[in-house]
Amino acid sequence: MEPAQPADRVPADPTPPDGRPPLPPTAEPVAGVAPAEGPAAASAPAGGTAPATDGDPEPALVAAAAADEPAGERAAVVRAGRAEKSRSERSPKDMALSLLVLLVPIALLLAFYRGFLGGEQPTTVDAAPAYEQARAANVFPVAEPTGLGSGWRTVSASFRTVDDGANLRVGYLTPEGRGAQLVQSNVPPERLLPAELTAEGQPQGPADLGGANWQRYTGRGNEQALVLLTPNRTVIVVGDARDNELRELAGALR
């Protein structure tokens, strides 16, 4: 005869009746903790751990994860949040001041470039060598403007021989900042004029310039021209300069 077992002790080998398979022993109750009742207790596993759900993590798990996170990472997250908040709290005045701080040095550099380094000023050249080459070639009479005001600046000058003659070109910047070019050539006019004024260049009537037989011509785009035809030379004054400036340049030729 076996000794009696306590009521709270699970038999070592419980065998259910009717030939059913043996059941696992139930966990012994923990002292001071009441066993769970109801549907929740029935669905909980024997180990006492709640099943994972598809929703948000339990507060206890979140707290445990936060406790396991290194202190340095938490501090970085806090600082990033504060920085984001401070950026979002900037007022339009603060942004305008920040932009002004950037624009002031740029304005100072631009003023220095223009005032002391001559920025945006056209590069002037000496046209004397080109005139000397044209005179030395002795292929046509060479005229040179004299008495132009100080506002006229020479920006280009060249003398070139071509298949059917030679061209002397001198470019000017007028006192009003416009462009004008003086062309002297012995190339036949029927070839020279279309090349310099395009095929659309047409005479517009005479221009009275000191008794010389100058003719007005249309040019490319918004350009206009004054043309002087002589037996050995063709002179063209062309550019987007005003009519009075073109007349001044043509009338200064000697």
Topology, please?
Elements: H1 39-43, H2 59-68, H3 71-88, H4 92-115, H5 128-137, E1 153-162, E2 165-173, E3 179-185, H6 189-197, E4 203-209, E5 212-218, E6 224-229, E7 234-239, H7 243-251
Antiparallel strand pairs: 1-2, 2-3, 3-7, 4-5, 5-6, 6-7
Structural description of this entry:
With 254 residues, the protein is an alpha+beta fold. Helix content is 33%, strand content 20%. The protein has helices spanning 39-43, 59-68, 71-88, 92-115, 128-137, 189-197, 243-251; strands at residues 153-162, 165-173, 179-185, 203-209, 212-218, 224-229, 234-239. Strands 1-2-3-7-6-5-4 form a seven-stranded antiparallel β-sheet, sandwiched between helices. A hairpin with a 4-residue loop joins strand 6 (224-229) and strand 7. The termini are far apart.
Q: How is this structure best summarized?
A:
The protein is an alpha+beta fold and 254 residues long.
Structural class of the secondary elements? alpha+beta
- The mean pLDDT is 77
C-alpha end-to-end distance = 150 Å
Supply the number of helical segments: 7
The total of beta strands comes to 7
Q: What low-confidence regions span 5 or more consecutive residues with pLDDT below 50?
A: 30-36, 38-55, 61-66
Q: Order of strands in the sheet with the most strands?
A: 1-2-3-7-6-5-4
Name the overall outline.
Answer: elongated
Spatial extent as radius of gyration: 50 Å
Oligomeric status of the shown chains?
Answer: single chain
The fraction of residues assigned to DSSP E strands is 15-25%
Order of helices and strands: HHHHHEEEHEEEEH
Biggest sheet architecture: 7 strands, antiparallel
User: Helix share of residues?
Assistant: 25-40%
